[in-house]
Amino acid sequence: QISSHLLRKMKRAMRRPGLVNQVMGSVARHGPACPCCSLSPAFRLVHDAGGLFASGPSAAVPARPVLSRPSPIGTSLAPPTATAWPRRSLASAASGPSGETDYAFEMATSSIRFGFGVTREVGMDLKEMDAKHVCVFTDANLAALAVDDDSPVAVVLQSLKDNKIRYSVFSDVSIEPTDASFKKAIAFAAAGGFDSFVAVGGGSVMDTAKAANLYSTYPPENFLDYVNPPIGKGLPPPGPLKPLIAIPTTAGTGSEATGVAIFDFEEMGAKTGIAHRRLKPTLGIVDPNNTRELPPAIAAASGFDVLCHSLESYTALPFFRRARPPTPLLRPAYQGANPISDHWALKSLEMVSKYLPIAVEDPSNDFARGQVMLAASFAAIGFGNAGVHLCHGMSYPVSGAVRSFTPEGYNVGGRPLIPHGMSVVLHAPAVFNFTSVADPERHLQCAQIMANGAGKTLPNPKADDAGELLADQLRRIMQRLRIPNGLEAVGFSEADIPTLVKGTLPQKRVVSLSPRPVGEEELAELFRASMKVY
Hints:
There is one protein chain. With 534 residues, the protein is α/β, with parallel strands linked by helices. Helix 9 (339-361) runs antiparallel to helix 10 (366-386), helix 11 (390-400) packs across helix 16 (497-504) and helix 16 (497-504) crosses helix 18. The model is unreliable at 13-87 (pLDDT under 50). The protein has helices at residues 2-13, 20-30, 122-128, 140-144, 152-162, 179-192, 203-217, 296-315, 339-361, 366-386, 390-400, 420-425, 428-435, 440-453, 466-480, 497-504, 508-511, 520-529; strands spanning 42-46, 68-70, 80-84, 104-108, 111-114, 133-137, 166-170, 196-201, 244-248, 260-265, 270-275, 283-286. Strand 8 (196-201), helix 7 and strand 9 form a beta-alpha-beta unit. The relative contact order is 0.11. It has 18 helices and twelve strands. The strands form four sheets. It has a six-stranded parallel beta sheet with strand order 5-12-9-8-6-7, with helices on both faces.
């Protein structure tokens, strides 16, 4: 009844502009689990100055979109207010080939199943999909734990056996994958003749499985054909991929809900990736049981990735200031901040601010661990469609240029490694202090949510202080969870800044979403400010 009621409202909204806020409010109030809020895998919204709510190629193209902006989120997803979407005065409106900015955004999400013990349902899902030969991706550390019947890999393999599904295991996934490790996994997938995939692990495993699925299903002429520009051509997948079920064993990347696969391109010494909606897993199985044995240092680094996903997607360049693509088919996965992603980002920020310290300091707290895992998926739904910006863009050359740093809790055989979440959050205080002038209200809202998560309030907060207030909240939680004191603490110096800037500039997919324009000079200052955090 609710679904048909909302559908009728949507149809009337195409003729009566005033109904759009009611429709959006209904979506927010019903919540993400309601079937009427999942009308299709790609939920397209187009707004004009009068509030038109339309779908499909016949939708009117607005000259100046005016959108409702969400109120601060407390314990539930709040409906939008009637306030117009704020325009960031410093955000440069990038223009497309026709000199125009975009007029629409599109929501695409994986199906998510959350619950303690849901990993054992994977065999049932694959049987429903009529899977005959499954490729199971994991890493060597998780594969070694499979002797324990309760370990994530063991539970998955037992579920496949119980459902009489043939499988092969690929466990040679590299932590922080490279183009070479991707190619090894792709060769395995291509030779196996698999009809479906399962990824059991952190973001490295899930991203490797996405790449293997894509390249083995539609082999390109050149490896870089699918890789993001300017390093690659950024070609879209020619068609649908094979089913992929992602089962995260960390609470961080949210890769179970995104169409992105990140890797180190060794030739350049920097990270890049592949991004398209078709890479999204068919199903993400989010089971807090799979993080019970996660070392605290890994839980902290992963959790800071969630935190930055939330902050970056909420403060990103608005979708209507991004360059319009030549055709809607080329609309990027990372589209800019939008009203739906905002809700997911703010709710995730609220959850991770409150529960990450508890989950790291007391791994026996099942509820806190579950909330952080759920926050990771919430953030992924948000940033998977809105995108991230400078924290991530600056992190890629840092991870790629690591020399000798070896983090606590990571079993990587002595190989130098700066965990992804750590490399991202090291820049966060400087970045959000810098971007706050583009939209002080949003940054102040984030600072207040983070303070509330610690049981505190901001006394007499002022918009002019938004950047420093948010930076203070970030420093507080980073110091509490023992994140190294800036880039110097992980082996960099000011002499490295030109190299780091050079490695950031090609990350246009994310850097272009900064709400405040950046060039070489601004990036150099941000890296300089990140040398020491505390």
